[in-house]
## 1
Amino acid sequence: MAGASIALAYTARNYKLAFRGQVTDRFTKALERLDSERMHVRLGGILALEQIAADAPDQSRHARQVLSAFLQSQAPRCGGREAGAPLPADVTAAVTALISRYEPFARLDFRDLDLSQTYFGRGDFRNAQLERVSLAGANLEFSFFANADLSGADLSGAWLDGAQFHYSKGLTVEQVLSAFPSLGTKLPNGIENDPLVVERISEVEEWKAGRNS
């Protein structure tokens, strides 16, 4: 029995070492892809990092750091994107990968980025730094913003159906009025009961009813 236990422990150790080696190799290849000039290769690198974070939780923080650095170097800044131009596919993929799972001690940095006119529904923006970010016209349905700092963020025309903003920071009545909140939008107490916000929600609900009739 003792021999079998030792053999099992040895096998387990070898498996862990082999798995770690595979993860390291995958990580290296993903980094190489991110540096490519070809869009589809960069997208492959982003998807590879997202998969590494799922397969090897102990590497999740490193994968997210790389994706965050990529985003900071590639994402357009507010005012630096041509009107009507779509967000680059690799930038969209990097944001989506970062907000697809909640990391309790992570604080995503989207400050001053132009992420407008893009679908980020059901995204997890908890604890994120969203100061002065442009989410104008973005679809943020059923996304989570607890403890996120939205100071100066542009939410004009953003779709907020089901989005969770309670416990968020920096959100103002003016920001909500510029967007499309609904009865399913959870807002901080000081904003939720504001008469103008209540009226705005009523307008959006009437529009939704007319669209679905």
## 2
Amino acid sequence: MKWGTACCGSVFVRGRGCIFDLYGALYQELVNFGIRTCGDTDLASEATDQVFVKIWEKRTQLERVENVQSYLITFLKRRMLRLIEKQHKINTALQNVKAEDEWIEMPYEEFVIKVQTNEIIQIRLKEALEKLSFRQKQLVNLKFFEGYSYEKISEITQMSVKTAYNTLYDALKILREELKDI
């Protein structure tokens, strides 16, 4: 990146020229960095825009920045994370609304059957989990709910990777047997 602009050391001083020089010199490079980081052109572009807008809005409150490159990259990463979190919340809300619409549109008999079926599945799953040993439950939780790899599970539980794999295999075999007719 071309970070050697004349204004870099005093970029956030109240002067209008330096921020526009910085914007002109670094905007595209920051967008490219954002694209490489998150893989989404629109998100990277929006986040970069927001970074420069925030800097302009807060220019009177910001201190002198010595390492502009590090500052802008960190700011951009945080802004992209916020945008990703916001998008995730919107997607989740839309999925929930869609799921609620399905429940609202179905006839009463289907609704009752679906509720009863869900309750039966929950009861059967709880009963099946009760048949597992403490260690098997722990490994099922770490693997499928926490998303850990076998290597990480072996570190956490202080067992070998092979033992963790075999214990989890046995747990899944029990669950499969108990839940085969659902």
## 3
Amino acid sequence: MAGSDTITRAAPDTVKILIAGGFGVGKTTMVGSVSEITPLRTEERLTLASVDVDDLAGIEEKHATTVALDFGRITIGQDLVLYLFGTPGQQRFWFMWNDLALGALGAVVLLDVRRPETSFAAIDFFERRNIPFVVGVNGFYGDHPYPPDEIREALALPEHVQVLLCDARERESARDVLIALIDQLIEAATRANGSGRPASPGRPNPPGRLTPPDR
């Protein structure tokens, strides 16, 4: 309209990011703490039927579990929106990872250093499919007993995979992990583009169908 002061802005890029890891590592907590919208959760209470199925060693206070996905959203700057999809951690729900991974540009693998083996399958899942990821070491009760380099060595991770100490309960901490992942994606896209200009990580072509983590 003539004389209007309205400024038309381009639609922001949208990027799909997975928040993955083992059972009880803090995926639902991270999505909920960082999301700017009320997160979608599909939690159900743990019952006696799961006593011989779910290993609660070290997380005895856990009373609910994600049975499908978590969903949240966060805007980074003015031109980038991240859609966050939290994966279910229990092995019997891993078949859902196929669909959740479609179109994802990258992932955060949360790790509980008290139970690192619970996130091995998630690391293997993304490594085998060349989906970029960072490892967020979730400090339960604010405790980080091991430095990132020691954790990297224990997990046999290559140097390009960032290992970041975080607290999934804290918005700024969770946001910093996501920003580190986005910076990694932009750097990789810029190298692939063959130019010095920063490349947008948004709007990928969906990959082919994926298989669940190895059992």
## 4
Amino acid sequence: MEPLITLIGTTTALLALGVLGVRPLRSWSRALRGGLAAMFTLTGVAHFVGLREELVAMVPPLLPAPELLVTVTGVLELAGAAGLLWARTSPWAAAGLGALMVAMFPANVYSIMTGASAGFSESLPVRAAMQAVFIAAALAVVVHHLRARRAAVAAGDRAETREAVLS
């Protein structure tokens, strides 16, 4: 549940700052990128501190080297979080993180089905719904970038195209 709270809370706070006059944060896509970056920083750090043993236990036994897999996914989440903060890499980071979430979802299912996880957010319907929200948020970043770029190219304005890529 903490990742969902982080995503919503950070995105809302950044949007509020935009309303209060912080011009770069007036864009919902930038606020969402910030929310996703905060969420993936939280989950990425958890791969190394605090929840490492629980995450290793979530890896299905068919997969080799659970500790290595947890380390690699943690590094990818932290790199993706950083990539979301730079406009030029944000659509690539969002797409990569979306694919990573899809790839890691079976570990969540395995954890829930074997009883390794407990609590409200660890029922399969709740966990699937949260995962869908996370994937939709990452997809929204990619779609926004593609639409802004397409609109700028259609307008034929090089400055607009550059700005669309950077937003």
